[in-house]
Amino acid sequence: MEKLIQLSLSGIANGAIYALVALGFVLIFKSSDVINFAQGELLMIGAYLTYMTVQQIGLFWPIGVVIAVILAAVVGVLIEQLVLRPLIGEPAISVIMVTIGLSSVLRAIVGAIWGITPLPAPQFLPRDPVNILGATVGMDKLLAIGLALLLFGILTVFFRTSSEGIAMRAVADDQQAALSMGISIKRVWAVAWAIAAVTAAAGGILLMSIFGGVSGTIAHVGLLVFPVVILGGLDSIPGAVVGGIIIGLIEAFAGGYLPPELGMGHVTPFIVLVLILLVRPYGLFGQKLIERV
Amino acid sequence: MGLMLGGFTALQHRLTKEDPLMLELNNIEVIYNDVVLVLKGLSLKVDEGQIVALLGSNGAGKSTTLKAISGLLKPENGAVTDGEVRFLGQPIHKKDAPTIVKTGIFQVMEGRRVFEHLTIAENLQAGAYTQKDPALTLYHDMEMVFNYFPRLRERRTQKAGFLSGGEQQMLAIGRALMAHPKLIMLDEPSLGLAPLMVEEIFRIIKRINKEHGTTILLVEQNARLALEAADHAYIMENGRIVLDGKPADLKDNADVREFYLGMNEVGGRKSYREVKHYKRRKRWLS
């Protein structure tokens, strides 16, 4: 029983982080139809920027985190303006190839600046074990869940009430109609990339703190975005949240209950991906859009 | 003294009564994909406070004309290659759509195009996107829209995708009002709607024009209704204006009667049984 609770909590914590990263992916896809294979690298950049501000420069950690997140948003907007804007009107496959290339370039840049050996992460989240129903979980994991929930809450309010948020949903619904009422689509894309970079950075900071270190491999979490968004539906924000948590739980249970030498924890999310594509390709909450590619 | 007074009143007259010309298209040419010539030197004028109808058959270039004004050609690979569009004296044919909306032109696109996954209130809020301080005026403006379209008030929290076609058209017009435009361009507001609903929508369009003073440029296939509502009408064919005038005069034009109003030369409504497969004249210009 304790094992179940323990696995559930750490699964939900990881899942909340996946959901944060997937959320950015969904936002970019919804507003601009770009499938962003560099989402994991945005997470990595967020983590390394925090390493820079907190560890290297030595800022008090809340200030360091805020500055890192702002810098990450700037990086997101720059990527959109310099890399993706010139590709408007190009076929989807070219855009996908460019984001794959972009992910390699970003890794190389990070490697050139901070090196490729793992670095010790600044420890600012409390890691004291907490006892819940007999199971012990690190405080940092609970904080990860709480922070993810807070971010989802803020984004929900943003999308429901603010003029900019409603404009983003309008663009996702009907680009030309949105343009006809004076909504600047380029601006919406820039905002989407900024938010995607911020949520990915938040995920990166949490992961770095939980792992206790940062290295280029942190970007591999980006691959888990695909099981998450395929399960939840490529164009669904609630789907990203639900999908993230389900994938986190599946990963934790498969890793915890199946023989560890099989390494099933890392494989099951992708088995789920294949199954979902076979059974329900538009995911749990996605729009049924039939398209020949 | 009398002369001076006369000069003064003339000056005052000129100051208060401004030039009524609001929108002017001069010989514009529109090309899609660098090859397809759709508008071939089209000119038209819209005076302030009027309802102007633009009629014509399918493919005449009516929607293209509206998009050339509102700056929506670019996403479709079209461009104004010659001539100019002036709004309140300023050339606007090189500006992008958001700038044009801010100067006061709002196009209600063909097929309603409401945001189906947004609620009615959110659709209206999206329409107010260009307003400088929407938080202050949003409530008041929504009330103004609900006054014209009371049906929308009851369903304000519902998703727009669940509305009927007529209600969606109302929402599309309401969304335009939220931007406080000086000129609303309506592209086929009657498309696919039941006759009763069409009548209601036309009544409201006339009310908006009268009470709000909003100028309206109306593209329609339903020539009878459009001519009833309009102060001035243009007829397009094949990328050109072929005829224009007061609706009353156009209604008496034999060609208009036969092609657009479906009447025979005697004046009675033609029965479909008697429709013969020939046209009085094949083209307006030939």
TrEMBL record, chain A:
Topology in the lipid bilayer: Multi-pass membrane protein
Keywords carried by this UniProt record: Amino-acid transport, Cell membrane, Membrane, Transmembrane, Transmembrane helix, Transport
A molecular function (GO) term: transmembrane transporter activity
Record-annotated membrane-spanning stretches: 7-29, 59-79, 91-116, 142-159, 188-211, 217-234, 241-258, 264-285
GO BP field: amino acid transport
A GO CC term attached to the entry: plasma membrane
Subcellular location: Cell membrane
InterPro entries found in the cross-reference section: ABC_transp_permease (IPR001851), BCAA_transport_permease (IPR052157)
Entry's family note: Belongs to the binding-protein-dependent transport system permease family. LivHM subfamily.
Protein name listed in UniProt: Inner-membrane translocator
Originating organism: Oscillochloris trichoides DG-6
UniProt lineage: Bacteria, Bacillati, Chloroflexota, Chloroflexia, Chloroflexales
Automatic annotation (TrEMBL), chain B:
Every ABC transporter domain range: 23-263
Superkingdom per UniProt: Bacteria
Xref: SUPFAM superfamilies: P-loop containing nucleoside triphosphate hydrolases
Keyword Nucleotide-binding in annotation: yes
Residues annotated as signal peptide: none
A molecular function (GO) term: ATP hydrolysis activity
InterPro entries referenced in this protein's UniProt entry, alphabetically: AAA+_ATPase, ABC_transporter-like_ATP-bd, ABC_transporter-like_CS, BCAA_Transport_ATP-bd_LivF, P-loop_NTPase
Record keywords, A-Z: Amino-acid transport, ATP-binding, Nucleotide-binding, Transport
GO biological process, one term: L-amino acid transport
Record's keyword annotation contains Nucleotide-binding: yes
Similarity comment text for this entry: Belongs to the ABC transporter superfamily.
Family matches, as PANTHER family: ABC TRANSPORTER SUBSTRATE-BINDING PROTEIN (PTHR43820:SF8), HIGH-AFFINITY BRANCHED-CHAIN AMINO ACID TRANSPORT ATP-BINDING PROTEIN LIVF (PTHR43820)
Name of this protein: ABC transporter related protein
Gene source species: Oscillochloris trichoides DG-6
